[in-house]
Amino acid sequence: MEKIETKYDENQIQVLEGLEAVRKRPGMYIGSTSSAGLHHLVYEIVDNSIDEALAGYCTEIKVDINPDNSVTVDDNGRGIPVGIHPQEKIPTVQVVLTILHAGGKFGGGGYKVSGGLHGVGSSVVNALSEKLEVEVSDGSHIHYQSYERGKPTCDLKVIGDTKRTGTKITFKPDPEIFETLEFDYDVLLKRLREQAFLNKGIKILFTDKRQEKPETVTLYAEGGIKEFVSYINKNKDPLHDDIIYFEASRNDMMVEVAMQYTDAYSEAILSFANNIHTIDGGMHETGFKSGLTRVINDYARKYNLLKEKEDNLSGEDTREGLTAVISVKVSEAQFEGQTKTKLGNSEARTLVENALNDKFSAFLEENPRIAKTIIEKTLTASRAREAARKAREATRKGAQANNASLLGKLAKCTDEGADYAEIYIVEGDSAGGSAKQGRNRRFQAILPLWGKMLNVEKSRIDKVYSNEKLLPVIQALGAGIGDDFDITKLKYGKIVIMADADVDGSHIRTLLLTFFFRYMRPLIENGNVYLAQPPLYKVFKGKNANLVEKFAYSDDERNALLQEMGPGAKVQRYKGLGEMDPPELWETTMNPETRTMLRVELEDAIAADQIFTVLMGDKVEPRREFIEKHAKYVSNLDI
């Protein structure tokens, strides 16, 4: 990493405003006070170390979760300046940790590229921590200061001598602020692994010291984002061994692209700006997609792989089976929204699009065998898309003609189209019958499904349209699928999957979730999909007028009810939804006043992509490994 030859001392730290509002409105600064906000504290401190790496001064970052659930981040960068700040007349490290919007990222020349757009990181973490300690090594001395809830408890002091440089911060989140204080190892590991991939050559050492025998995970990727693509594709079958990689720069911007095609039918594109995952895309991702489509069409035309009368390949065609990581570094990043999930710099689009035009075009010319493989993949996708279009048109005509054979079993509700309207997708005709009788007809629709449906992980979109099990779902929801999906046309605010609590029911849930994830992902991103939670047991005692019935959703609840009711209490184990009569199904599973439902959420698209690939794909070995690893967590499994 090229070093920025600028001075980095107290004169580069500029002050914009104070800290008062952070503890009053923490959500404004870290998103929430839930688990997500808690982990955001770690990201802010680690991002400061990463910024030192981007500037060319840091090569190693240690991150420890301590036994008391505090976190230590220790880097070998330059160290936060400790000289007296010219404006504030206190040590600069204290300015950085106590004054909002104080940092080297606001034009003072300390950093050329930074992910910390808002510059609130260190001071916000300090304000929201019960206790924070900082040690700065400046090559001569170790400087120390401690804080409680953002306020210094001692002056900055020298506690030792050293030849190293760097910053070490230990903080313990404030229980007065956060709903949970328990750090999730896997969540932090994912984020740190991401940072190692995005910053090749940086070593991140991660240790969970809460474990009886702590082990340090070393995250290091000499190949950078090329290794990131390999990691994402580890359970997929690539169409070419070499990962396509190129980079380009212009003025104060640079872009890296790594990409590889697989035999999958879905795409996995990750974009980053200044190491921040832009989950909503932005100009850099737009430039990548338009450049990719143009280059592939130009190559196919040039070598007559796309006939003169054939239409151009669509963007969807050119991205089928593609895994790509796009990483841009921009000196003045413009992120849309406080959450920094979409990049707004228009010049980033031009940079990335030109990089594709130049570098990807050259790659295809220099690698005709790989080029032909890619073009064949996109042409097959195009033909499937055309077949899907014809099937879709047939479907629309069928829907307009009230295709009784497909939608005849749908029991509509009177308030269809309202946000509060619900559709229950129910396993089996028997349970469907009970649900139809027990429901509230005003806002609850019922769609019974029978038999196993298509595994879309192994099928293209044209097969989806011709599948008699999935077609009723598509028609009932009314919003289309794939690139045609339009959430504004959705007829129901809640889509509830209701299946038996056994192996077959779990399979049906997984098949439906795979379908929604691959072809109607906005439903999951928008929080429209739910899993019904029917009871496992009915515990009852007495007869007729003296009959007492209660329902249990777990073994522990069943045991508690048996103890509560005392001698003579009996248990009925529900093997399927069809065993419940309509009033029972309504009261336990469908009544908004008494039911329990799980909302399906998408926190990490790539992790979800990998899990669906493992569980629903063609490869047996990764699935076996997954089952062996997670089998100990399974309960209530009927065999």
Note poorly predicted spans: 105-111, 630-639
Structural class: alpha+beta
Name of the level-1 CATH class of the largest domain = Alpha Beta
Number of contiguous helices: 21
Mean pLDDT: 85
3D structure, described in words:
It is a single chain. This protein is of the alpha+beta class and 639 residues long. Helix content is 37%, strand content 20%. Strands 1, 2, 3, 4, 5, 6, 7, 8 and 9 form a nine-stranded mixed beta sheet that branches. The chain has a five-stranded mixed beta sheet with strand order 10-11-14-12-13, sandwiched between helices. Strand 4 and strand 5 (151-152) form a beta hairpin. The radius of gyration is 28 Å and the shape is flat. Mean pLDDT is 85; it is low at 105-111 and 630-639.
Helix-strand layout with pairing:
Blueprint: H1 21-24, H2 27-30, H3 35-54, E1 60-65, E2 71-75, H4 92-98, H5 121-127, E3 129-138, E4 141-148, E5 151-152, E6 157-161, E7 165-173, H6 185-198, E8 203-208, E9 216-219, H7 225-232, E10 244-250, E11 253-261, E12 268-273, E13 276-277, H8 283-302, H9 315-319, E14 322-330, H10 346-366, H11 368-400, H12 404-407, E15 422-427, H13 429-438, E16 444-449, H14 461-465, H15 471-477, E17 494-498, H16 503-519, H17 521-525, E18 529-532, E19 537-541, E20 548-552, H18 555-565, E21 570-573, H19 582-590, E22 597-599, H20 605-616, H21 620-630
